[in-house]
Amino acid sequence: MQKFPMTAEGHARLEEELRQLKAEERPAVIRAIAEARAHGDLSENAEYHAARERQSFIEGRIAELETIVPASEIIDVSKFSGDQVKFGAYVTIVDDETEEEKSYRIVGAYEADMKNGSVSMSSPLAKALLGKSVGDTVEVPAPGGARAYEITAVRFR
């Protein structure tokens, strides 16, 4: 069975999402479908079709999470230290061209969320950073051409 590396925080978020989908979302959409059915002709009932679409999404996400959560390999990053980028590290980088500073956390694929500053360890950025240390410069392939970044900080919490 394939294992999915994950931080404890990411695993807890996925477990909570699964719990919420099963305990709250699923029953709510079943009620919405029943209510929409009561309105009559289903072929022209937009509420019914929207509820069925939502149900399909919820059931698909539940199935996905029921595969991922039990197969998660929780990695205790609190035992990590040093200035070398590893799984779970918070990395601060500076764009060599724009001097813009950004911070990211290297996490598993199923917990990555770029909006919240976490990138999958399989992303081009993380692949370039893994194994490097403070002061190193990495080149990351991008659609507009390769970008160079200098690693200015590596932290573990």
UniProtKB/TrEMBL annotation:
One of its GO terms (molecular function) is DNA binding. Pfam families: GreA_GreB, GreA_GreB_N. Signal peptide: none annotated. It comes from the Bacteria. SUPFAM superfamilies: FKBP-like, GreA transcript cleavage protein, N-terminal domain. Residues 82-155 form the Transcription elongation factor GreA/GreB C-terminal domain. InterPro entries: GreA/GreB_C_sf (IPR036953), TF_GreA/GreB_CS (IPR018151), Tscrpt_elong_fac_GreA (IPR006359), Tscrpt_elong_fac_GreA/B (IPR028624), Tscrpt_elong_fac_GreA/B_C (IPR001437), Tscrpt_elong_fac_GreA/B_fam (IPR023459), Tscrpt_elong_fac_GreA/B_N (IPR022691), Tscrpt_elong_fac_GreA/B_N_sf (IPR036805). Residues 5-73 form the Transcription elongation factor GreA/GreB N-terminal domain. The keyword Transcription applies. Gene3D superfamilies: Transcription elongation factor, GreA/GreB, C-terminal domain, Transcription elongation factor, GreA/GreB, N-terminal domain. The keyword Chaperone does not apply. Keywords: DNA-binding, Elongation factor, Protein biosynthesis, Transcription, Transcription regulation. GO terms for biological process: DNA-templated transcription elongation; regulation of DNA-templated transcription elongation. Necessary for efficient RNA polymerase transcription elongation past template-encoded arresting sites. The arresting sites in DNA have the property of trapping a certain fraction of elongating RNA polymerases that pass through, resulting in locked ternary complexes. Cleavage of the nascent transcript by cleavage factors such as GreA or GreB allows the resumption of elongation from the new 3'terminus. GreA releases sequences of 2 to 3 nucleotides. Belongs to the GreA/GreB family. This is Transcription elongation factor GreA. It comes from Teichococcus wenyumeiae. The lineage of its organism: Bacteria, Pseudomonadati, Pseudomonadota, Alphaproteobacteria, Acetobacterales.
